[in-house]
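Amino acid chain
________________
===
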Amino acid sequence: MPKHRSTGRVEPDDAAADAEAFRAAVRGVKPLAQAPVVPIPRKPRPRAPRRDAAVSMENLDEVMPLIGAEQVSGEAALSFHRGGVRLQVLRRLRRGLYPIEGELDLHGLTQSAARDRLADFIVRSRDHGLRCVRIIHGKGSRSGSRGAVLKAGVNLWLRRHMDVLAFVSARAMDGGAGAMYVLLRA
């Protein structure tokens, strides 16, 4: 053990003796084999979607035809949310706790007219700062064997629109399975 003065410094003779004692103690020690260091890849940060990269609603049926339209029945409840939307927000939307700031009724329109009107409505609503809107698409009870054509279309079109954060079927008093609440990007 080195001798210390009151100044906290080690005497030079003691330091040399300590170094020699350490070298003697570790003389027979062999270093461990070193494994090559493999860097852990970092997760890429999620990027905010670019406005120009959003799917255009024009000619959307030619790009992606309505697939699975027969899977949506008139009475089926619809629900969708993007990653990052908290379940609490989706729960509040489902309960109708967000004020409805706009509404669009698509009854009686053709698929292409409904798609165009829906795209225009979403863009105008977002531009006016609306946060929650109601879309009335109907249950398709008069569509015959084709089923709920507009409901299936609205389901797919809203999922593709980058300004839509989440949507759920409305409560019975607001249209039930024939309408939906849509939460828009702020």
Remarks:
- DSSP finds five helices and five strands in the chain.
- The first strand starts at residue 79 and ends at 81.
